[in-house]
Amino acid sequence: MGEQILQVNQVKKHFQVGKGQVLQAVDGITFAVNKGETFGLVGESGCGKSTIGRTIMSLYETTSGEIFYEGKNIHTLNEKEKFAYYRKIQMIYQDPYASLNPRSTVQEVITEPMEIHQLYPSKQEQLDRVYTLLEEVGLQRDHANRYPHEFSGGQRQRIGIARALALDPAFIIADEPISALDVSVQAQVVNLLKDLQTQKDLTFLFIAHDLSMVKQISDRIGVMYLGHLVELTDSADLYERPLHPYTQALLSAIPIPDPDIEAQRERIILQGELPSPIDPPSGCVFRTRCPKVMDICAHEKPVWTAAETNHYVACHLYK
């Protein structure tokens, strides 16, 4: 186990949605990210994984709980410390086109954070840095004077990666960075991120819903369902021995290239719809769709348990 760079302790993020209703987007999440690793956070749409990413970025305030970066609580930092924190941690967004100002050139997009943090004060130093970043992400120098609409989706995401690297961060939150891209481009972007991690000693929180792609980049994976973390272990262990029924269902949906194996294996089909985070089920939040539901699941919330070495799960099957 390496040095922990980020700790998320019992974090909740609730939103008031009118008429006294509360949307429980994240409801008590605890995990840690080790320096230099890629921590994958997966789950279907609406489970709260992007919300926890934005809360770590301090775009949202926590409803309760604590987030520590390099041992410091990010919500008790003074203004100077916050400014330094915002330089150390950056985000790559899901939609590369929506996250880029269409009226700004690539050069302006990448140099904006440099100007805010007063790095590379001369225009020539900034331009040289832009050229270096573009080449590092697989683009060309002459792309600096073009606008976002002149690029393909994969190229725009490379620009977003270059912008995230502009401040030499140590920690990057990649919020579904490949979900809006063609399948043929997804592997290229994942390989780029892996190469950059090695070159720059980066730490990643990689948020996605595609378990097959997350496996390729993540050292450890946490599985979220309806605002809760239900399983966490090493990437290889999760695929070889998934413990939680929800994880098992997610993995069964991944197609296997061998047609003979694919035809014989059992697919787990979850019944019912994803419950609303405004009115989640009592007890275990997964019980309304779980094929292994028991009586205890309706009235008792499962406890986070080390079912195996470095393999944690929240399920009554492993009490």
Features:
four-stranded antiparallel beta sheet, 319 residues, 24% strand, single chain, 10 helices, eight-stranded mixed beta sheet, alpha/beta
Describe the structure concisely for a colleague.
With 319 residues, the protein is of the alpha/beta class. It is built from ten helices and twelve strands.
Give structural notes.
The protein is globular and about 70 Å long. The two termini are 25 Å apart. A hairpin with a 2-residue loop joins strand 4 (64-69) and strand 5 (72-73). Helix 3 (106-116) runs parallel beside helix 5 (153-165) and helix 4 (123-136) crosses helix 5. Helix content is 32%, strand content 24%. The protein has 319 residues and is α/β, with parallel strands linked by helices. The protein is built from ten helices and twelve strands. It has an eight-stranded mixed beta sheet, with helices on both faces. The protein has a four-stranded antiparallel beta sheet with strand order 2-1-4-5, with helices on one face.
Topology (elements, then pairings):
Layout: E1 4-16, E2 22-34, E3 38-42, H1 49-56, E4 64-69, E5 72-73, H2 79-88, E6 89-92, H3 106-116, H4 123-136, H5 153-165, E7 171-175, H6 183-200, E8 203-208, H7 211-217, E9 220-225, E10 228-234, H8 235-240, H9 245-252, H10 259-264, E11 304-308, E12 311-314
Helix pairs in contact: 3-5, 4-5
